[in-house]
Amino acid sequence: MAKKDYELGGELIRTWSTYVPEEAITEVSKTLRSGWLNTGKKEKELRATACKKWGFPYCVAVNNGTAALRASLATLGVGPGDEVISTPFTFIATNTAILEQGAKPVFADIKYDDLNIDPKSIEKKITSKTKAIIVVHYGGNPCDMAEIWKIGRKHRIPIIEDAAHAFGSMYKGNYIGAKGDLACFSFQVVKIINSGDGGLISTSKKRYYKKLKKIIWYGIDKEEKTTNLLNPFPKNFRGEVLGFKYNMNDIVATLALAGVNHFDEAEDKRKFIGERYRNELGDLKGLKLMKYYSDRKPNYQIFPVHVENRLSFAKSLHQKGIMLNINNRRNDIYPMFGGIRRDLVNTAKADKDVILLPMHSDLTESQVSYIIENVAKFDRLH
Ligand SMILES: *Cc1c(COP(=O)(O)O)cnc(C)c1O
Q1: Residue owning the nearest CA to atom 6 of ligand 1
Q2: Can 3-18+263-381 and 22-261 be said to share one CATH topology?
Q3: pLDDT in tens, 32-46
Q4: pLDDT tens string 109-165
Q5: From ligand 1's centre to the CA of 241, what distance in Å?
Q6: Domain locations in the chain as residue ranges
Q7: Best of 72, 136, 188, 193 for a ligand 1 pocket test (most atoms within 8 Å of beta carbon)
Q8: Closest Cα to atom 7, ligand 1: which residue?
Q9: Is the full-model pTM beyond 0.90?
Q10: Residue 16 C-alpha to ligand 1 middle, in angstroms?
């Protein structure tokens, strides 16, 4: 194959990486040798560590972020005939979870400047059938939670935060997931912490916590499970709640725990890159950064920007060995969500011009400089 015009050793610079701290490798070996692989003390340690680190009042661990969303909807009793207001500009999991519960996603518009759901649009979509609202902290840049919580309180509708991008992000001095009804996190491989697959749900309401523990394992709270010799079937199984098989096993929990323990290193690297992009690309004429607010702290899970001619931008940078990614299309156009292009002005604009710059904790400083240089060069020439 002909050599490409890469200036840095011919390696393609990826948009994402899968971050695995060394400790994860040694710790998983210990778990594998321990004789206990199912949900157990590692899972418990993971939850305790996450609660302490990010100020979660309660949390449960599950086997992926999509399961976290569905379990949260089930906890709120969302089912057939119900509407859930959500954002169309997200990975489809946010909205397939609503379909899994037999409910209908109702799409609100987003704000063009940060790609998060627009509280004003949420309020317009509320009907007597609205059972929940799901918001996504897009790219780890938090939503206007004060406005969203106000709407929730006014109409008595609970809020689920899809925090799959938002481990360690902060809103007005609190970590995402420390306040509010239910926040769903993901440990999927390209997320800031990964355990292969995995998820976490935080809540500040004890009654949600108690119900969640049943919903994630066949309707039985594993920690309260009691059996006796003559009847090994759990004595506390009453079969009153339909539960799923969403528990996190200890192999996965060991990986996730190592990720949580090394989170700060991964986050520092992302912060360094994010701040360089913001400082050094902020004045370009053809590229518009997201809006970042002074009362919020992003974790830079991804780095989306608006670029008018994003395809020629992507092709040109690819020639330089830099991979860019267009990751989310507006969800409303897919047949499973009705296949109707709703009248959502900002969603339509973002659907045409959002693209991700490389953002992950394995980028080197010289790679970041190289990316910035080439993005600026493209901007000057177009
Ligand atoms: C990754 C992701 C999910 C799903 O998480 P999984 O752990 O892959 O199931 C949900 N919502 C958003 C916004 C995501 O990026």
Answers
A1: 65
A2: no
A3: 999 999 999 999 999
A4: 999 999 999 999 999 999 999 999 999 999 999 999 999 999 999 999 999 999 999
A5: 25
A6: 3-18+263-381, 22-261
A7: 188
A8: 65
A9: yes
A10: 15
Euclidean distance between CA atoms 101 and 92, whole angstroms? 15
Q: What percent of the chain has pLDDT over 90?
A: 90
Q: Are 316 and 330 in contact (CB under 8 A)?
A: no
CB 277 within 8 A of CB 347: no
Are the CB atoms for 101 and 78 separated by under 8 Å?
yes
Give me the pLDDT at residue 164, please.
98
* The pLDDT of residue 6 is above 50: no
Per DSSP, the residues of 43-95 read HHHHHHHHHHHHT-SEEEEES-HHHHHHHHHHHTT--TT-EEEE-SSS-THHH
Q: Which atom of ligand 1 is nearest to the CA of 188?
A: 7
Write down the CATH number for the domain with range 22-261.
3.40.640.10
Give SS3 for 131.
strand
For residue 1, what pLDDT band results from cuts at 50, 70 and 90?
A: very low
Q: Which ligand 1 atom sits nearest the alpha carbon of residue 165?
A: 15
Strands 182-186 and 159-162: parallel
pLDDT digits 0-9 by tens, 232-259? 677 778 888 899 999 999 999 999 999 9
Quote the CA–CA distance of 328 and 120 in Å, as a whole number: 23
pLDDT tier at 295 (50, 70, 90 boundaries)?
Answer: very high
Integer angstrom CA distances of residue 379 from 98, 283, 288, 355:
40, 10, 11, 15
Measured in Å, residue 65 CA sits from the centre of ligand 1 at: 5
Q: Is the pLDDT of residue 8 over 50?
A: no
The sign one gets for the Cα dihedral 86, 91, 94, 96 is positive
Are the C-beta atoms of 284 and 73 separated by less than 8 Å? no
Give residue ranges with CB within 6 A of ligand 1.
64-66, 90-91, 93-94, 136, 162, 164-165, 186, 188, 197, 199
pLDDT at 231 over 90: no
Domain 3-18+263-381 fold = Aspartate Aminotransferase, domain 1 (3.90.1150)
